[in-house]
Design a protein that fits this description.
alpha/beta, Alpha-Beta Plaits, six-stranded mixed beta sheet, 12 helices, about 30% strand, binds adenosine-5'-triphosphate, binds magnesium ion
């Protein structure tokens, strides 16, 4: 067994080690290892084609892995026990459009061996949880994109899994449904594996984030720790009349705590440890020199900067 799996702590809900998957010439997943604690929300953040869906398909036992080990709730990945512990919410909708949400959930519930009153209660509870209790009788085809996504999530939650795996659940979803989905996921209290290419979602929702690119997990940690380690420094952008740029540059270079001053697209960009702390000094210098600042913007690094610094690429297409 792979080390990462063997060493998985007793309170890990999921442990995977050395996952590898090749499609012909393409190595889609190249040695991915991580673990998710009980009740922890873990984000797999990466751009299109990074290997997110292939990774979770292997974790859920839907795609055979070429190499690597998976353990879910102490059971070997692919076993019936491991599959039962997981609620999988696929990237593409997995619902019958001509059936209502309740009918869809009845179908999925029976596959999990639920029936009668217990199944009815579960369906009601789950629809309530995803905010669709009043629309259960409507056909899926009549739902908005966001409602379809929420119904898709209900299908993954119906059997009360210990680990919910969501594959980009908010793509193409209106802001209201997006917030509803994020809120529901945030309040579940079970372990969650959440794949996304939206860094704001990963930052907001996930206890820990694994950044995946080209099939490899290239960094892992909490959002603040990833940003502190790889995000770089604050940037302060100053705009003024072109004729004042040289004078402002000279003055800013003399300020304390400045790492770099450069002209970017006709504005001045200062690199510093803490942008907000610099502002009073910048404003005072401009006033003293008689320079009118027409724009001031402070930007702290985010996960986008982390991705850029690790890969040299933008996270978004
Ligand atoms: N069934 C398949 N046959 C051949 N290649 C595949 C298959 N599934 C995935 N791939 C390739 O493997 C790589 C990883 O794909 P994957 O779907 O895992 O990425 P992803 O991170 O989920 O991307 P997205 O954000 O677009 O959903 C891509 O280059 C993709 O083209
Ligand atoms: Mg995908």
């Amino acid at each position: 067994m792979h080390d990462a799996v063997a060493c998985g702590s007793a309170d890990a809900m999921l442990v995977c080690g050395g996952l590898r998957k090749r499609f012909g010439e393409r190595l889609a997943v190249d040695g991915v290892s991580f673990s998710i604690g009980v009740g922890e929300c873990y984000g797999l953040l990466g751009p299109n084609g990074a290997g997110k869906t292939t990774t979770i398909s292997m974790l859920c036992g839907l795609t055979e892995r070429d190499e690597g080990e998976v353990s879910i709730d102490g059971h070997t990945g692919g076993s019936l026990e491991a599959k039962t512990a997981v609620g999988y919410v696929p990237q593409d909708l997995a619902l019958y459009p001509d059936l209502s949400a309740t009918e869809n959930l009845t179908f999925f519930g029976r596959l999990y061996g639920l029936s009668g009153r217990e199944l009815e209660d579960r369906i009601h509870e789950t629809l309530e949880l995803v905010g669709l209790a009043d629309r259960g009788k409507d056909r899926i085809a009549t739902y908005s994109g966001g409602m379809k996504r929420r119904a898709n999530m209900a299908a993954g939650l119906l059997h009360r899994p210990k680990l919910l795996v969501l594959d980009e659940p908010t793509v193409g979803v209106d802001p209201q449904s997006r917030n509803a989905i994020l809120e529901t996921v945030g309040n579940l209290g079970i372990a969650v594996l959440y794949t996304t290419h939206y860094m704001e979602e990963a930052s907001k929702l996930c206890d820990r984030i694994g950044i995946i690119d080209d099939g490899k997990l290239i960094a892992e940690g909490t959002a603040p720790s990833l940003i502190a380690e790889h995000g770089g420094l604050d940037k302060v952008q100053l705009s003024c009349a072109v004729s004042d740029l040289d004078a402002l540059t000279t003055s800013c270079r003399a300020l304390e705590g400045i790492h770099d001053v450069r002209e970017v697209d006709g504005s001045l960009e200062l690199t510093t440890d803490h942008g907000p702390a610099l502002l009073p000094a910048v404003v005072a210098i401009a006033a003293r020199r008689g320079i009118e600042l027409t724009g001031v913007e402070v930007r702290s690094p985010n996960l986008e900067d982390v991705f850029l610094s690790l890969t040299g690429k933008e996270l978004r297409d």
